[in-house]
Amino acid sequence: MIVVAESADVSDKAVIGDGSKIWHLAQVREQAELGVNCIVGRGAYIGTGVKMGDNCKVQNYALVYEPAELEAGVFIGPAVVLTNDTYPRAVAPDGTLKSAHDWEPVGVTIREGASIGARAVCVAPVTIGRWATVAAGAVVAKDVPDFALMVGVPAKRHGWVGKAGFPLQRSGDNWVCPETGATYVEQNDTLREVEA
Questions:
Q1: S-S: 149 plus which of 71, 112, 159, 183, CB 3.0-4.6 Å?
Q2: Cα torsion through 161, 82, 66, 163, rounded to 10
Q3: Coil, strand or helix at 181
Q4: Of the candidates 155, 164, 136, 7, which has an alpha carbon nearest to the alpha carbon of residue 78?
Q5: In 10 A of CB 193, how many CB atoms?
Q6: What is the model's pTM?
Q7: What is the pLDDT tens value at each position of the chain, 196 positions in all?
Q8: What DSSP assignment string belongs to 62-107?
């Protein structure tokens, strides 16, 4: 069953997966595709043609501008902004108002299981790797590797996180999740999980 709050504005041309919930004052535009069991919080905006995988959460007042793509299990914190215009201007060089047809939108891609903290900004075009975490208030302007913990303005890698979201701890040549015990191997500034 799909739940849509009475005050939400959901286009009849959007595709909403079963079990999804869209709360008060949220807007979901035309051709947006939400997977099953997604949550769109109060006042959030999902742009035209945005694609969201299953089990995504977009928290209150987040702005997900098209053509963003969120894979399964992505978390978007409160007031996050995913931009779509590399060189934004309201007017053309001659001073005339620009229209929607005067620029080419570019998107943010967020891979499976990644989390973007409250009030963070991802400046398109960037890709956030699988299971990465972007800290609250960070500004991401470059691609983020899988499992990276990104902090600051501009965001820089400040360690690694596991699938449970906890910062990983060094153990010899490996990294270990203190929550799950999962082991990861770092090589050439990338991280991969060791298969059990």
A1: 159
A2: 10
A3: coil
A4: 136
A5: 17
A6: 0.95
A7: 999 999 999 999 999 999 999 999 999 999 999 999 999 999 999 999 999 999 999 999 999 999 999 999 999 999 999 999 988 999 999 999 998 888 889 999 999 999 999 999 999 999 999 999 999 999 999 999 999 999 999 999 999 999 999 999 999 989 999 999 999 999 998 999 998 6
A8: -EE-TT-EE-TT-EE-TT-EE---SS--SB-TTSPBP-TTSS----
Q: Any bridge partners for residue 134, and if so which?
A: 116, 150
Distances from the Cα of 133 to the Cα of 27, 57, 127, angstroms:
25, 14, 12
Location of structure tokens 């990861």: 184
DSSP string, 5-71: -TT-EE-TTSEE-TT-EE-TT-EE-TT-EE-TT-EE-TT-EE-TT-EE-TT-EE-TT-EE-TT-EE-
Residue 181 tokens read as 């015990």
- What is the distance in angstroms between the CA of the first residue and the CA of the last residue of the chain? 37
How distant is the alpha carbon of residue 162 from its chain centre? Answer: 17
One-letter amino acid identity for 39? I
